[in-house]
Amino acid sequence: MLNMNGKDNFSSDDAVAYRIHFTAMICTYGSVAWDEIEKYDCNRCNHTVQINDFLAPRPSCIKKDGAILDIFRFGVREEIRNELIRRFDISENDFRPCRNKTGDIVYYQITPQHTMLPIADVNDWKSLKPCRRCGRVQYRDKDRKTAFDGNDIVFISKAALDDLHDLNCTYENFEMHIPEFIVSKRVYNFFATNYPRLLFDPVFLK
Prior knowledge:
11 strands, 22% helix, globular, 5-stranded mixed sheet, alpha+beta, single chain
């Protein structure tokens, strides 16, 4: 997923972290309305907060190891969630349950509690103007799209790497206030060995 463009000589073996890039399989809310899951807390920049848990994906989706529950919100099967908590410095707080119609938990939304140090400068990401009402800053969506889809190489600073946890969200939020989710290399190795169909993009030290 790297585009060298003749400028750099990076191999995926040189990656120091990985960004979650699961297959785009959107799971619907079912009979639950959007505003029962999220609500606006700034009407100017449309920032939202999640107020309730997602419903479990359709039964056909639960057979998948991981999926996108909504736009850029990722989830994994209960088995994977439990293994991550058992093996790594990842806690129950890093997930939200997704229940089926009878109330059973069958899937988990990934909700990293650790926010990385900023990496916008080492990637030349440009911010939009802060919201005049709440002051929140978003970065350009086109930077997010080109940063992680193989059209560019993404870097992390030494300070951010030293502060990296096993499961992280970026300090930077892009349009729609969406962060990226980054895992440590040892977590990636666990996925690559046990769940190779789940996709990740490499992140390099600068």
